[in-house]
Amino acid sequence: MLPSDDAASPYRTRMARKKTPIPPAPPVADLGAPGSTHPVAEGRLDAAPEHEAGRIRAVFSRLRDAEPAPKTELVYRDPFTLLVAVVLSAQATDVSVNKATGPLFAVADTPQAILALGEDRLRDFVKTIGLYNAKAKNVMALCALLVERHGGAVPRERAALETLPGVGRKTANVVLNTIWGDPVIAVDTHVFRVSNRLAIAPGATPLAVELGLERAIPAEFMRDAHHWMILHGRYTCLARKPLCPTCPVSDLCPWPEKRP
Ligand code: SF4
User: Fold this and answer.
1) Region Disordered: start and end of each range (predicted)?
2) What is the topology classification, in CATH, of domain 30-66+184-252?
3) Contact 244 CB / ligand 1 (< 6 Å)
4) What's the rounded Cα separation, in Å, for the pair 113 and 105?
5) Residue stretches of the annotated binding site
6) Does the chain have fewer CB atoms within 10 Å around its N or its C terminus?
7) For 79-180, which CATH superfamily applies?
8) What percent of the chain has pLDDT over 70?
């Protein structure tokens, strides 16, 4: 677990301080240039597998050098509190979620305790988070189902997780990866953007990107790939003004609109 202050992120501080020396990378000068016929830019990943494997490996090597042990920035104590935090984080920042869950988990950090708290009091704790009404309802229903079907524990299986209110594939993947280390990728807005810009697994939908990433990312990087891509999207490859001039993978990036 990391502190929740984005501005003080150790990742951002490290990235600003150094540009990591990197292993030799394959030639990439023509990747994604306007008018490029490079297979990655066109989504034909299989057309140059060896070339692409080297480039993608270099991308993750550098991201790993920048943050060898990436973690979620959501603050949690155990599988249950992580699950609640992730449900609350939909379309909200980790910082805003942590501000709400700190006081909440201090008084109720089990499904039984949140059920005892009641929906009105839960809503008071989370009312600073976007969509808090619907989220409070989901958390109450999720707690009831956990108690009823799973003895109050968070299930280990994706299928069981996805039956819980407010829990979709992305949330299930976060829990499976963060708690149990499963090599799965949760595709949020940052992962989606970074994957497409870097042409690691171009895709039009989160599921297409997720499945493409599972095929494209070397096994040694799979467990932490999700966190590296989130951190890269959150602090460097920003949606509107990506920090390309200081980006550690700029020379590996085929995005035609990257900044010089
Ligand atoms: S060069 Fe720019 S667009 Fe490409 S990954 Fe880096 S920050 Fe993102």
Assistant:
1) 1-38
2) Endonuclease Iii, domain 2 (1.10.1670)
3) yes
4) 9
5) 237, 244, 247, 253
6) C
7) Hypothetical protein; domain 2 (1.10.340.30)
8) 81
